[in-house]
């Protein structure tokens, strides 16, 4: 029996939801599960025009939305000459961001499932990763302007397919999932699918245990200040520093590279990508947009007396934040 992950259910019931829909097995299963649970949602589909059924899938999504009185947003993607997976993902999320912003959605729902979770885990494991990176797919992930919800992480691909077949629900097969030119498909074919066939229940439990461990790992910090794009965090253990900065920059839409993570171990005052100022001082982490603007001497003196790091001061001035507000 398949079901929505328990921690996602109340969030879905109480907010305005947008489902990232492809007409494939996973998103189709989530579509009909949401209907069964009487959860309100609309759908959004990106047509990459790469498959034989691309037009049929888009028309199917439009018809399905009409049948169930939902809104359906669609867009035609341009062709990407190189690095298709990254460019396609960036285009897709830019599209979702625009819809969410213009129509006041609270949540973006994606149909990632247990197989996806194991693929991610194995791919990160082979590249070198800590607990936070290994568990990159979370049931609930905060973003700058909305929350990403993944309600199917406990369900395997096989279980979702059985659900669709049993209920005679329509879906399409994405043949690109079998093309080994994509790294994730290599892991899927040679490792993750085979492991799940034999050890599904144990793998499912292991992810639950690992997620509990991750929550405990992040227990020793507090978000002491947040305004727009600025965060101030207090922490107890130095081992949390890189993980917290990675987590909060991700919320702000910026992904740290491996080299940038290493830089955090060497330096306590950094600007990443010319965009984000990160300051570590006296068991506090300060994260804010990096700006270069002239500030009056009086304001600089207020920041100095408050012992605030230099790289975040311009953002405080621009947003008219009283330096004393950061002192609690």
Low-confidence residue ranges? none
Task: Please state the average pLDDT score.
Answer: 93
Q: Measured on Cα atoms, how large is the radius of gyration?
A: 22 Å
- Provide the CATH topology of the largest domain: Rossmann fold
Structural category is alpha/beta
Supply the number of structural domains.
2
Key structural traits:
about 325 residues; about 45% helix; EC 6.3.4.19
Question: Would you give an account of this structure?
Answer:
There is one protein chain. The protein is of the alpha/beta class. It has two domains: 9-213, Rossmann fold; 221-327. The chain has twelve helices and eleven strands. The chain has helices spanning 9-14, 25-36, 54-67, 84-103, 114-127, 131-134, 157-167, 183-217, 241-251, 258-266, 297-305, 313-318; strands spanning 17-20, 42-47, 72-76, 107-109, 140-142, 147-149, 221-227, 230-235, 269-272, 276-281, 284-289. Strands 3-2-1-4-6-5 form a six-stranded mixed sheet, sandwiched between helices. Strands 7-8-11-10-9 form a five-stranded antiparallel sheet, covered by helices on one side. Strand 1 (17-20), helix 2 and strand 2 (42-47) form a beta-alpha-beta unit. Helix 2 (25-36) crosses helix 7 (157-167) and helix 5 packs across helix 8 (183-217). The radius of gyration is 22 Å and the shape is globular. The model has no long low-confidence stretch (mean pLDDT 93). Keywords: ATP-binding, Ligase, Nucleotide-binding, tRNA processing. It holds the Pfam family ATP_bind_3. It catalyses: cytidine(34) in tRNA(Ile2) + L-lysine + ATP = lysidine(34) in tRNA(Ile2) + AMP + diphosphate + H(+). This is tRNA(Ile)-lysidine synthetase. GO terms for molecular function: ATP binding; tRNA(Ile)-lysidine synthase activity.
């Amino acid at each position: 029996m398949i079901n929505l992950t328990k921690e996602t259910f109340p969030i879905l019931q109480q907010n305005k939801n947008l489902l990232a829909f492809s007409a494939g097995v996973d998103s189709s299963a989530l579509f009909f599960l949401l209907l069964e649970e009487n959860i309100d949602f609309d759908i959004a589909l990106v047509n990459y025009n790469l498959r034989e059924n691309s037009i049929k899938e888009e028309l199917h999504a439009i018809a399905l939305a009409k049948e169930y009185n939902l809104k359906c947003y669609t867009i035609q993607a341009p062709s990407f000459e190189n690095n298709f997976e990254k460019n396609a993902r960036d285009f897709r999320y830019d599209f979702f961001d625009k819809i969410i912003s213009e129509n006041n959605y609270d949540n973006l729902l994606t149909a990632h499932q247990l197989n996806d979770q194991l693929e991610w885990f194995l791919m990160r494991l082979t590249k070198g990763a800590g607990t936070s990176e290994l568990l990159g797919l979370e049931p609930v992930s905060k973003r700058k302007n909305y929350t990403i919800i993944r309600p199917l992480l406990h369900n395997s691909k096989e279980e979702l397919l059985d659900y669709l077949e049993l209920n005679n629900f329509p879906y399409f097969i994405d043949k690109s999932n079998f093309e080994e030119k994509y790294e994730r498909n290599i892991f899927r074919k040679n490792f993750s699918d085979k492991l799940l066939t034999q050890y599904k229940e144990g793998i499912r439990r292991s992810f639950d245990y690992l997620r509990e461990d991750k929550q405990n790992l992040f227990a020793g910090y507090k978000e002491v200040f947040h305004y727009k794009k600025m965060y101030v965090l207090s922490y107890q253990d130095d081992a949390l520093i890189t993980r917290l900065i990675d987590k909060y920059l991700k919320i702000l839409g910026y992904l740290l590279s491996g080299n940038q993570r290493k830089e955090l171990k060497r330096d306590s005052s950094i600007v990443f990508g010319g965009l984000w100022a990160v300051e570590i001082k006296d068991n506090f982490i300060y994260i804010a947009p990096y700006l270069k603007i002239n500030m009056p001497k009086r304001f600089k003196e207020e920041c100095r007396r408050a012992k605030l790091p230099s790289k975040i001061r311009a953002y405080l001035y621009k947003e008219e934040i009283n330096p004393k507000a950061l002192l609690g």
